[in-house]
Design brief:
alpha+beta, about 400 residues, seven-stranded antiparallel sheet
Length: about 400
């Protein structure tokens, strides 16, 4: 069945039709009016209570359809989709954040239900896209290697003054906990000291030829002023992902998406612990209690897909995270392919078309596939579906979200 995604107009989204989310949503629902000054940030494709997709035509929500026939939809007597598929279009950085694990999510939801509105964990996968404006997807992810952090902090007289000589002595002594001590000192610094540090750095950098990280610093300062999250870039890996590259964010991994477009899939949750680059509530103490201080090179953050059936499905790469909630297949077909078989897991899946044209055939029924089309393949659709592709110069590109039942 065809779906209409749920559009989220968060402040950090790209504006009007500059947003890839807006382009997809408009193609998916012709009656949708796109406003040039509105930020179209996220497109949700799932049954999450805060933004369920609807069935095209009758506008029934997907969660209602699943509740009425869970056996036909998901191949089980009861349940909901364990995953949430999204597309993000980012004009302005998202918050520095972590996601709690399952046990911590239950605890936070019980203690602070107005802030943490569900009890599920939120591991997530982001796969970079591209459009006519953004050639890469930019993010902060995980702590930099220890020597990198030590070097960056040593180069900044302002950070040395903010954090104190005792912190830099920890790095000189190669103390194992130096990164933890420094980051906690940063996040607990009083606002006046943060303002002084950042304004002093801005004054120094405006008269110099800025490096890549300094350019990022100035951009974040322009967007967020003297927010403590601006200084997190000296601790966290700065990544620029080419289209098709991905990062997997397990529980407690610090991260922030900065710019660009991506397909995102996660456990069905909206739990976020924020501590910077946001006007929203900052739960600094919870983030510092949960965050993983594992220091690794940026390239180690990249998450690699697998070719599961190279002889049968040579153009399907599947991202299989170490959780059961979700997996994502990228189906990228060259222009000379006319027929292709797509697997449909026993619990169903959601298919998003990003490029190319064709027809999906399931049990004799045919559905046109083109840019922006979102299709829910229920369990009753069977394990294999057929794609017949139009002759075109545009390669076919689709993403398929599913329950992770891979070994």
């Amino acid at each position: 069945m065809e779906l209409v995604g749920n559009v989220k107009c968060y402040e950090w989204g790209k504006l009007g039709l500059q947003s890839f989310v807006a382009q997809l949503a408009k193609a998916n629902s012709k009656e949708l009016e796109i406003k040039a000054d509105c930020p179209y940030a996220e497109l949700w494709m799932g049954d999450h209570i805060n933004g369920p997709a609807t069935i095209k035509g009758d506008r029934t929500s997907l969660d209602e359809v699943i509740r009425k026939d869970p056996a036909g939809m998901l191949g089980m007597d009861e349940g909901r989709l364990p995953f949430l598929l999204k597309v993000l279009s980012i004009r302005k950085a998202l918050s520095v954040q972590v996601h709690p694990d399952k046990a911590e999510a239950e605890k936070l939801h019980h203690q602070f239900p107005d802030i943490y509105k569900d009890s599920n964990h939120k591991p997530e996968l982001a796969i970079a896209l591209t459009d006519f404006q953004a050639l890469d997807f930019q993010a902060l992810c995980g702590f930099r290697p220890y020597p990198q952090i030590a070097s960056l902090l040593a180069e900044s007289v302002e950070l040395r003054a903010l954090l104190g000589d005792d912190v830099f002595q920890e790095f000189q002594n190669k103390t194992e906990t130096a990164v933890k001590v420094a980051y906690e000192r940063l996040m607990h610094s009083d606002p006046t000291s943060i303002d002084k540090c950042i304004e002093s750095m801005v004054g120094r950098l405006q008269d110099a030829e800025p490096s890549e990280i300094q350019q990022l610093f100035l951009q974040l300062y322009a967007d967020f002023g003297c927010d403590v999250g601006v200084l997190s870039i000296y601790f966290l890996n700065y990544l620029r992902l080419a289209p098709g590259q991905a990062i997997y964010l397990a529980a407690n991994v610090p991260h922030a998406y900065l710019d660009g477009d991506c397909v995102e899939c996660m456990a069905c949750s909206d739990n976020v612990v924020r501590a910077g680059l946001t006007p929203k509530f900052k739960d600094v103490d919870t983030l510092l209690r949960l965050v993983s201080y594992s220091c690794s090179p940026g390239e180690s953050m990249l998450f690699q897909p697998k070719l599961l059936q190279p002889s049968v499905q040579p153009y399907t790469r599947t991202f299989i995270p170490p959780v059961k909630d979700f997996a994502v297949a990228e189906i990228r077909l060259p222009t000379n392919v006319r027929e292709y078989t797509v697997s449909n897991p026993m619990n169903g899946s959601i298919l998003l078309i990003v490029g190319g044209k064709g027809v999906l055939e399931v049990s004799g029924a045919k559905t046109e596939l083109k840019f922006g089309k979102v299709v829910f393949l229920p369990s009753s659709a069977g394990r294999l579906v057929q794609l017949n592709l139009d002759e075109t110069d545009e390669p076919f590109l689709a993403f398929q979200a599913m329950h992770n039942d891979f070994e």
